[in-house]
Amino acid sequence: MKFFTYNNTSEQIEINEHEVLLVREFAELWKTDRNKCKEDPTGTYRLRAFRELTFIWLFFDWSSPYCDFDEQDKNIECKKDAHLTEEEYNDPTFREACRKYKALQDSSRVLKLLKSAQSTVTKLNDYFDTIDFTASDPLTHKPIYSAKDTMNDIKNLPSVIEGLKDLEEMYKKEQEAKSDVRGDATPGFADR
Q1: Helix residue spans in 12-108 (DSSP H)
Q2: 142 φ/ψ sector (left φ>0, alpha ψ -120 to 50, else beta)
Q3: Domain spans, the chain
Q4: pLDDT tens across 112-165, in order?
Q5: Dist. CA 87–CA 50, nearest whole Å
Q6: What is the pLDDT of residue 183?
Q7: Where are the alpha helices (DSSP H) in 90-188?
Q8: How far apart are CA 73 and CA 175, in angstroms?
Q9: Which of 6, 78, 138, 157 is deepest in the core (most CB within 10 A)?
């Protein structure tokens, strides 16, 4: 699913698959009345829609440069880069389009697994940040954390990172395969 692509020449998001405008939530963003502004009084250039689509791509797409940011930092940076005002961000029509894009992205089982794995890695990060080797069990007075066990856990982290990379590659290949075959067509010999 590559609905949007980044054009290096124009430095803007472009609609890669115009069929996305058949989806009600994206069609609403595209309406000219909604896009009227001081820079475009008729709304025909759809400047607001492109700002909104830029945010959606930057925030939700796996190929976004912000894909590895935590949710809060990603939100802040994507709003800045998309030049989205707080009022535009809180617009119910825009928020519906965000939810729809997320639902479309999350329809992949590989992506669901990848997100779960990324969430687990975030929890591991929190775990390692909070280890206190001086902490002890109040009942037994034995140390809660063992330096030896922690070092063994750290030694296994490269395999965790490689596993995440493998899942990301699986997802990217799945998405590329989906975007190569349109409609209800069956992949042919050259498509595999």
Answers
A1: 24-30, 47-60, 71-82, 86-89, 92-106
A2: beta
A3: 4-105, 109-183
A4: 788 788 888 888 888 899 999 899 989 999 999 989 999 999 998 899 889 888
A5: 16
A6: 47
A7: 92-106, 109-130, 147-155, 157-180
A8: 26
A9: 78
